[in-house]
Design goal:
Length: 138
């Protein structure tokens, strides 16, 4: 079996207001999960999306588990070590994401060139996703 594809993308929101941060994180998780499912379906390979996995756990914990990359390193690092490919989904805020930078650095240090993904506008299912996730949305 081929090694899984790692799907990187921003998650933690730094928006002001608890409701806005929560909404942004939920939209990012939905978009990244849909992208991971599409890659899995079209490539017939295993994928690992730390946002898809972690968001569900974060919600199940009553939002008490850590939200940042450092809090999830112990979970994500062993999976990254198994992966021979990384897709970096460039959602709004990706270039400022500590977690995405950490993931890119991990793969680059191993000699793995990231595949950068810019999702087309029609990929987003509704205006909330577009607003919270598309890099060019105001």
């Amino acid at each position: 079996m081929k090694e899984p594809i790692y799907i990187a993308g921003p998650y933690t929101s730094h928006a002001t207001g608890l409701a806005t941060r929560y909404a942004e994180q939920c939209q990012r998780a939905a978009v990244l999960t849909r992208y991971a499912a599409e890659v899995m379906f079209t490539s017939h390979l295993a994928v690992f999306s730390p946002i898809s996995h972690g968001h569900a756990l974060w919600l199940a914990s009553g939002c008490t588990l850590g939200r940042d990359a450092k809090a999830w390193a112990a979970v994500n690092d062993p999976i990254m070590a198994l992966c021979q490919s990384v897709h970096v989904v460039r959602l709004k805020g990706w270039e400022a994401s500590v977690g995405v930078k950490r993931e890119i650095d991990h793969f680059t240090q191993r000699g793995i060139v990231p595949i950068y993904v810019d999702l087309p506008v029609h990929f987003y299912k509704h205006r909330r996703e577009l607003f919270h996730c598309h890099p060019e949305a105001a």
